[in-house]
Amino acid sequence: MSFGIISVIGLGYIGLPTAAAFASCQKSVIGVDVNQHAVETINRGAIHIVEPDLDKVVKVAVEGGYLRAVTAPQAADAFLIAVPTPFKGEHEPDMAYVRSAAESIAPVLKKGDLIILESTSPVGATEQMAEWLAAARPDLSFPQLAGENSDIDIAYCPERVLPGQVMVELIKNDRVVGGMTDKSSRRASELYKIFLEGECVITNAKTAEMCKLTENSFRDVNIAFANELSLICAEQGINVWELISLANRHPRVNILQPGPGVGGHCIAVDPWFIVSQNPEQSRLIHTARLVNDSKPRWVVDQVKAAVADCLTESGKRANEVKIACFGLAFKPNIDDLRESPAVHITEMVAQWHVGQTVAVEPNVHELPNSLKGLVELLDVGQALEEADVLLMLVDHRQFKAIGGDAIKQKWVVDTKGVWR
Ligand code: SAJ
Fold it and tell me: Structural domain tally of the chain?
């Protein structure tokens, strides 16, 4: 059965690009989001998030009449759920948004519909979602009881696009499709093939759920290795970046880069889903999380040591020392400050330091709430001119372009090895 209308629930960093990708293939797409501002913005042909090239695709899709946004679900032939799955309490996954998305589409479901969960989820989430749907619609049959003959098909298909490159990776990356039945998998693959150039690789729902968690945990563990090396190298007086580039010349070694910590809403979150479901078995994954989460505090200690040296050597009083923090985003060349270690470190530094702390972030015009009234936002030139201590937190292209001779300061804490 073909898909006349496709509905995407959740129009954020994943849902909106996905909706736009279907619409740009001349499919009729209904985007649903509880955020009225997002819905109005999209219906004007504009976007409420920052992602290269997304604005153009959304504009064309809306103006062509293929994409429209609404605040409450309407009937469709396929529903893709792309809502957040944060953690709560002791790092347990919070499935409240998925539940409420599932319950919101239940009233408009009809025989023959396909539902795909894309949100990063703990193992078993797709079955759990199917249970919520079945409870809401006892008149329809679902795969957990009716198997291949169910009225509704359900699959899990995780997104795996890299923020900053979403519009390319969405089309090119392979997709893992985990249907609750073979029919569900086949239909989900058929749906993605509308815009996908990568391959659809079919498995079951549980394996697909674990696959997504595995990908991000793999990256977290590897970043933790680099971050741990940076601590060891600091003790040993070895330049960690030189060390890594040398070690990476070995044909089977490929170490990632240390930094101020791991941020964003994926890598710092998803490994906890594995840990919370398998606390006994996931010792390495758990430790990697702790290593990465402890890095910001270590960076702050480095800043305290640099300020102490500055006081001794310059003869200034602490309140006369100005610290400039370069970068607030959670990674280079984006404006996303969510779960950013750079924001957290800047806040800790500013709270500790009695003198002035300033931040430089070329990708934003306004400080996040946690820094308002605490630090001042300066441009690169001013910060280099006025600061006594420099703290490099995010290797944005503008900061990498600063030549070594432009840095006159003696006291530099460089968490990205950019100004070495
Ligand atoms: N980081 C380092 N050192 C590195 C690489 C990254 O410290 O060598 C830090 C970054 O600065 C950042 C954090 O890790 O703070 C995460 O950045 P990232 O670029 O590794 O990943 P995300 O969070 O932008 O996107 C990840 C991707 N997952 C993988 O590469 C396995 C993406 O493909 C996923 O779709 C996304 O998570 C997601 O939504 O789950």
Answer: 2
CATH of the domain at 391: 3.40.50.720
Same domain? For 49 and 138 the reply is yes
- Same-domain pairing of 260 and 170: no
The verdict on the CB of residue 327 being under 6 Å from ligand 1 is no
Q: Give yes or no for residue 10 CB within 6 A of ligand 1.
A: no
Residue 325 annotated as catalytic: no
By the 10 Å C-beta count (0-12 exposed, 13-18 middle, 19+ buried), 17 is classed as: buried
Please choose from 119, 121, 162, 225 the residue to mutate so as to test ligand 1's pocket, defined by most ligand atoms within 8 A of CB: 162
Ligand 1 binding pocket includes 215 (Cβ within 6 Å) = yes
Tokens (6 digits) for 362: 């070329």
DSSP state of 191: H
Cβ distance 357 to 374 under 8 Å? yes
Token pair 């990205």 is found at 416
**198, 229, 256 - which closes a domain:** 198
Q: Tell me what pLDDT residue 1 has.
A: 61
DSSP code for 194: T
Query: Averaged over 297-325, what is the pLDDT?
Result: 97
Which runs of E-coded beta strand occur in 327-418? 357-360, 376-377, 389-392, 411-414
Q: Is residue 247 located within the same domain as residue 370?
A: yes
Q: Read off φ and ψ for residue 332, nearest 5 degrees.
A: -65, 150
Claim to verify: residue 272 and residue 352 sit in the same structural domain: yes
pLDDT digits (tens, 9 = 90+) for 235-288: 999 999 999 999 999 999 999 999 999 999 899 999 999 999 999 999 999 999
Cβ–Cβ under 8 Å, residues 243 and 226: no
